[in-house]
Fold this sequence. Notes:
Blueprint: H1 7-17, E1 18-25, E2 34-44, H2 48-58, E3 62-66, E4 77-82, H3 85-98, H4 105-120, H5 127-136
Helix pairs in contact: 3-4
Amino acid sequence: MNSKLNPNYISGFVDGEGCFSVTFNKKKDMIRPEVRLIFEIELREDDLEILRRIKNTLGCGNIYHLRYLRYSKWIPHYKYKVSNIKDISEKVIPFFRKYPLQAKKKYSFERFYIVSQLVLKKKHLTNEGILKIRRIYGLK
Length: 140
């Protein structure tokens, strides 16, 4: 099938199943942590088609097959993930600003949006910017 979905359907779906996150990765040789924005949806493998249709509608990201074992009755999953800042700023964020989330996930998206603006302005490359991003997410 792999056709595009109604944008309002996607917003509702993401309200329940999506995740907007910011990660901090610090390696030994780095002065400050690397900041990455990630939008993702993880579903059981029998829901792969809906991930393909969401990816097709948004026009970015990748789908990964997750086969690791979490517990004995775990069913393999697929993850749709967007982590490229250009795709996030030009496709993901405009989509969800045009078709807003309605549940509590909208607060997660708003923090995600604020951090994306800081990253686009290269503020994440300063200690002050890292502290600001951490405060936005309630981290110390």
